[in-house]
Amino acid sequence: MADEYDLRSIAPTVSDILGVPVPSGSESGPIGRVTSDLRGADRLALIVLDGLGSVVWEHAKAELPVLSTLAELHHMEIQSVLPSMTYICLSTMVTGVSPETHGIADLESMVAATQSSSLDTVFDSVRGTGQKTLLAVHERDVKGVPVARFADRVVLAKEPNDDEIYSQVPVEAERYRPSFLFVHLLDIDEAGHRYGPYSEKVKQSARVMNGRLGDLLLRLAGWGYAVILVADHGMHEAPEGEEGRGQKGIHDGSVEEDLAVPFIWATAAEVQRFLQA
Predict the structure, then answer these.
(1) What's the CATH architecture for 7-275?
(2) CA dihedral in degrees (72, 73, 78, 83; nearest 10)?
(3) Over the stretch 168-188, which tens digit does the pLDDT of each residue have?
């Protein structure tokens, strides 16, 4: 199942659920199981769990009962893309095209691509139908990117953690009720890079995420948001010699640990029913 779909399927899946045009040039179709369950949702939140590939998730699964509970309802495994770097993965998610096609490899090329009128994203599709969007990311990751081109509301976290994301997204979602939310959470990835993907620090980060993510999902569900949770990539332990650069965990797509990622989805009613306890 992991080989059947990859990150290119996300944009067409979101488009189908919300009933908007698929971004032009999309190289994949929607994931039928997901659109069948979520099609017709008035609002959708796509939450990217940076670095929480399938193997890392298995390592920290005991600390993430929120994800496990929803995964028992709807879960599949899909593939990341090569090379499995965050800029590249996120760009593929929102365009539906391969890295070779969108050409984004780093922040500099992302800035150049987003300034081009030829880049078509799921944000454009949603906004083109008169619906509102929200983008919640970290300021360091979009420096120079004209984010207002994509989102009506933007949350830019200034610190390299998810505190501002968790605090501000509910405020913006309740006040403006955008049809599409794109939320990027990086605490797991940060811990994995610094301490290694199978470290106790990753488990600690997962434990903290569990409570905060569960609260966020319940609040969003109360406003009618269906949810998709997906990792952009996994991670593996850095080979000897790499640690000197401060990276105990890396993800370049050279091993399967980097490529297999969980894909979890739920309706607003399911989130409320199964996470309310």
Answers:
(1) 3-Layer(aba) Sandwich (3.40)
(2) -70
(3) 999 999 999 999 999 999 999
